[in-house]
Amino acid sequence: MDDFAARFNERKAARRQEDRSFVILGETLTVRAAVSSDVGFQFQEALALNLEASNALANIANVNGGGNEEAVAFLRESQDKQRKYIALLEETIVDCLEPGTHEAWLRLRAKDAADPLSSDEIFEIAEYLLGRASEVPTSAPADSSAGRTETAKPSKAKSSSRAMTPTPSP
After folding, report:
1. How confident is the model at residue 74, as a pLDDT?
2. Are the CB atoms for 88 and 42 separated by under 8 Å?
3. DSSP symbol at 135
4. Is residue 136 very low, low, confident or very high in pLDDT (cuts 50, 70, 90)?
5. DSSP H helical segments within the chain, as ranges?
6. Could you report the per-residue pLDDT of 77-97, keeping only the tens digit for each?
7. Residue 122 in contact with residue 93, Cβ under 8 Å?
8. Domain boundaries in the chain?
9. Using CA atoms, how far apart are residues 93 and 39, in angstroms rounded to an integer?
């Protein structure tokens, strides 16, 4: 076996052996050692649905002369998309958890749970699990800088580009 295959197999074996469990609200969950890329696509689909749900809600405010029927249609569309969004997040979470901890997740999500999870919290958990299971960060990277900075002294060097002369407006 060549070096690549040996390193690859060692890395996968080490990942399976590490402790991937954590506790949320008294329930112990364990992240799978790996997930297929389809789980990531599922998460992206959930994000797209959430955006569509928000757009449908925004359309309610933009209804001009359409009356209540049009506003109700946009509200129903938003609610349907929000339900699908939560369902896809739930699927992502279950796909990222070891099968032995699915029951713990169901207890956290039970309608009569002592401390119910909000949709934002479900998103946060799905994002965390997917990042751990895929070893790929799911959050946007931090900004690289705060923008242009000023130097201590202005430059006295001549510019290599030609100055633009403003043209009068018609």
Report:
1. 82
2. yes
3. T
4. low
5. 3-17, 37-62, 67-96, 102-109, 119-134
6. 889 999 999 999 999 999 999
7. yes
8. 11-134
9. 9
